[in-house]
Design goal:
Blueprint lengths: L1 H22 L3 H54 L4 H82 L4 H13 L5 E5 L2 E2 L8 H9 L13 E3 L2
Parallel strand pairs: 1-3
Antiparallel strand pairs: 1-2
Organism: Deinobacterium chartae
Protein name: C4-type zinc ribbon domain-containing protein
Keywords: Coiled coil
Length: about 230
């Protein structure tokens, strides 16, 4: 009975390994996903910055157009009042102020135009990287899906075999095993190797070894880790 339980433990260990393998992402896929996330994050940042830059450009261009219209009107009005020296002086001051503001806005727009061009080129380059990565990432994802599918099929096959074997165990023994296994990181049964518990390496008293060697129920537990002992 205990030998059968030990076999169940071995099968459970194998099932745990298959589950771990399923969640373990292959290195090339992990790297491709990391690169994809990096590109996506950079694209989002560039597009956000480009939107803000375009908005600022639009605001400045509208203000520039408004001041240019005012400047044109002021010059026209100055021409219409060319006979009045006092009015001429007033218009000259106004034209100077408007001209200065137009110059300021034109200067402010230059770095914004350069920034917009830089961002647009950056976005184009990132989109090119994303397009180049896409087929490789898709292929790696498909390969991983196949890998996971194969692991799950293997898991189900071995799980059925394990359950069939476990059904032959004494019900009380099986329940005790599951409780210990859950509490002891997946290992409910330990073999006796060279007089020691193979799980915790405790040297077992001779009496414990002798009782475990009989294979009789109830099963003997390791005095240290509490796992069920079996001599194999």
């Amino acid at each position: 009975m205990l030998e059968r339980l030990y076999r169940v433990q071995q099968m459970d260990t194998e099932l745990d390994r298959l589950k771990d393998d399923e969640t373990r992402i292959p290195g090339d896929l992990a790297e491709a996903r990391r690169e994809h996330a990096e590109i996506s994050e950079a694209l989002e940042s560039h597009r956000r910055d480009l939107e803000a830059t375009r908005k600022e450009i639009n605001q400045n261009e509208l203000e520039l157009a408004d001041y240019q219209d005012k400047l044109t009107k002021a010059r026209d009005d100055q021409q219409k009042n060319a006979y009045d020296a006092k009015v001429q002086t007033q218009y000259e001051n106004l034209i100077q102020q408007l001209g200065d503001r137009v110059s300021d806005l034109e200067e402010a727009l230059e770095p914004l135009y350069a920034r917009r061009e830089q961002l647009e080129k950056g976005i184009a380059a990132l989109e090119e990287r994303a397009a180049a990565l896409a087929p490789r990432l898709s292929n790696l994802e498909a390969m991983d899906d196949t890998r996971i599918g194969a692991l799950r099929d293997e898991y189900q096959t071995k799980k059925s075999e394990r359950d069939a074997l476990a059904n032959e165990l004494d019900k009380r023994l099986a329940k005790e095993y599951e409780m210990i296994r859950k509490a002891r990181k997946g290992l409910g049964v330990a073999a006796i190797m060279n007089g020691r518990c193979a799980a915790c390496n405790m040297h077992l008293p001779i009496t414990v070894q002798q009782r475990a060697a009989t294979g009789a129920l109830p099963a003997v537990k390791c005095p240290s880790c509490g796992r069920l002992l079996v001599r194999v």
